[in-house]
Amino acid sequence: MKTRFVLIHTSHAGNVGAAARAMKVMGFSDLVLVKPRWANVLRREETIQRASGALDVLNNARIVETLDEALDGMTHLCATAMTPRDFGPPTRAPRQHFTELLLNQELSPLVHNGMKADFPLVSACQPESVAFLFGSERFGMQNEDVYRCHVALSIPTDPLFGSLNLAAAVQLVAYDWRQALGGFAVEAATPERQLADGAEVAGMLAHWERALAGIGFLDPASPKKLMPRLNQLFNRSELSIEEIHILRGIAKAMLQRTGPDAGKASLPAAASPDQ
Amino acid sequence: MKTRFVLIHTSHAGNVGAAARAMKVMGFSDLVLVKPRWANVLRREETIQRASGALDVLNNARIVETLDEALDGMTHLCATAMTPRDFGPPTRAPRQHFTELLLNQELSPLVHNGMKADFPLVSACQPESVAFLFGSERFGMQNEDVYRCHVALSIPTDPLFGSLNLAAAVQLVAYDWRQALGGFAVEAATPERQLADGAEVAGMLAHWERALAGIGFLDPASPKKLMPRLNQLFNRSELSIEEIHILRGIAKAMLQRTGPDAGKASLPAAASPDQ
Predict the structure, then answer these.
(1) Most A CBs within 10 Å: which of B3, B175, B236, as the mutation test of the A interface?
(2) How far is the alpha carbon of A95 from chain B, nearest alpha carbon, in Å?
């Protein structure tokens, strides 16, 4: 969905750069600045440094004089406001609002048949485009800019310390919006583990039982609860087939140190691990 | 739940300050630095500036020589790694992992009765404490530090630009973790809207119908579909009782301009808005 980030009256060049980077890691690129403090903010050293490679976002960014110019073509306007206003659009947490916005529900008619709604009120159709508006670092958004928006997004922060950095707010909104749009895949660093089944775990445990007797750690005459304990430990480990091989290798090496028949004598070949 | 953020070999003082601020807005305060580039990083000007009031986090932060010292008392270790590793813990998106971690499910036994798991594998009990580990800005986490962790969290970013700022990563993980723990409430800026019921909407529309005829906009002899259109518009607006009063006030003012009987003549007193 067409998505635009609008920074209004931004003071710190570093925040503009960091906002560009925050947008780009979440796959967004449309940045508009309304009357930033520095007319040359897109070319300032601190901006470029904090953008850290998101230069295309800066190069394509527009600087405009008024919020009207910034909002051309945008149908759903989201203010971001950390401080309450007397009037204006409903306040929502971003994650909740985005879920509802994309649900394409048909709930509205119910409300007007005389019923009070105790479910979230959402418009019956998805917007075509979404703009996120961010006010200045010191003063946030002006009231008149909030009033024209469809919603005031409030990022849930500690009531005792709500001082969210501007670029951090852009990062969180970009993240939640990207996730709501379906998100990016997380690249699995390790191959999927192929889990061992119960028989493989039982076989490995029987092997260990012999080995532990062989090295003199387990007394077959008085095994106590050692094997059930190990069984539970390995259950929690959710062993892969490869790990079964490793553990059997260890058992084999223990047995080789103690002579081939050391642990075999008085134990059944395959003790049930479920005893 | 006891939560610690561990920054390993951090280079930029500004990132340490921004990380402290990012933690604090999400209600976390336990910060440990392992061998930061600057021994005095907690007192550097850039750190304090970017912390923007999260000074208690900086004041209580510890600087240690080794990761071992940083992890005392922490039971569940989360690496953050943007680049894949051959070995090591499973890679997960933070939001997914946190949900599973807090589910306190009893799924594990099933896996070992010979069934392959096609559901998420979670440990049967919640951890007592969680540490989030972040590597250096340039190189990320070292392999041996990742290997000791229970999971490698990977924030889902654009595959074409995964360059997430360190403090931004701390912000996103702190946000997702706080949300998973129940989150902070969003303070409603505006009082709850009390919705008008169907009868109130219909009464207002009848008032408008008279007024629009009064000012000559609606031709009672050929009303076309004006009133149903307005009805649909106001349905989508989900009118509050207060807004009904405003709209009736406008209708009244229109009628006063045109004489009390101007619009009444040929219209029923309460036209059904559902025609």
Answers:
(1) B175
(2) 10
Together in a domain, B217 and B124: no
- 3-state secondary structure (DSSP) of residue B44: coil
Same domain, B172 and B211: no
Same domain, B25 and B69: yes
Distance from CA of A73 to the nearest CA of B (A): 21
Residues 232-271 of B with CB under 8 A from A: 235-236, 238
**What value does the mean pLDDT take over residues B125-136?**
91
Q: Do B178 and A167 touch (CB under 8 A)?
A: no
Predicted confidence at residue A87, as pLDDT, reads: 72
Distance separating alpha carbons of residues A173 and A94, to the nearest angstrom: 7
Distance separating alpha carbons of residues A143 and B42, to the nearest angstrom: 37
Of B27, B112, B157, the CB nearest to A158: B27
DSSP string, A125-175: S--SEEEEEE-BTTTBS-HHHHHTSSEEE-----TT-----HHHHHHHHHH
Nearest to B172 among A117, A175, A195 (CB): A175
On whether both A85 and A125 belong to a single domain, the answer is yes
CATH number at residue A170: 3.40.1280.10
Q: Please tell me the predicted confidence (pLDDT) of residue B87.
A: 72
Q: How far apart are CA A229 and CA A207, in angstroms?
A: 15
Tell me which residue range forms the domain holding A103.
2-180
**pLDDT the model gives residue A269:** 45
CB pairs < 8 Å spanning A and B: 202
Do B141 and B195 lie in a common domain? no
Q: Compute the distance between CA of residue A26 and CA of residue A183 in angstroms, rounded to an integer.
A: 9
**Res A142: pLDDT:** 92
User: Which chain A residues have a beta carbon less than 8 Å from that of B78?
Assistant: none
Is B93 found in the same domain as B66?
yes
A34 and A130 belong to one structural domain:
yes
pLDDT of residue B110: 40
Answer whether residue A185 is part of any domain: no
Residues of chain A with pLDDT under 70: 84, 104-125, 189-190, 259-275
pLDDT in tens, B204-229: 999 999 999 999 999 999 988 899 99
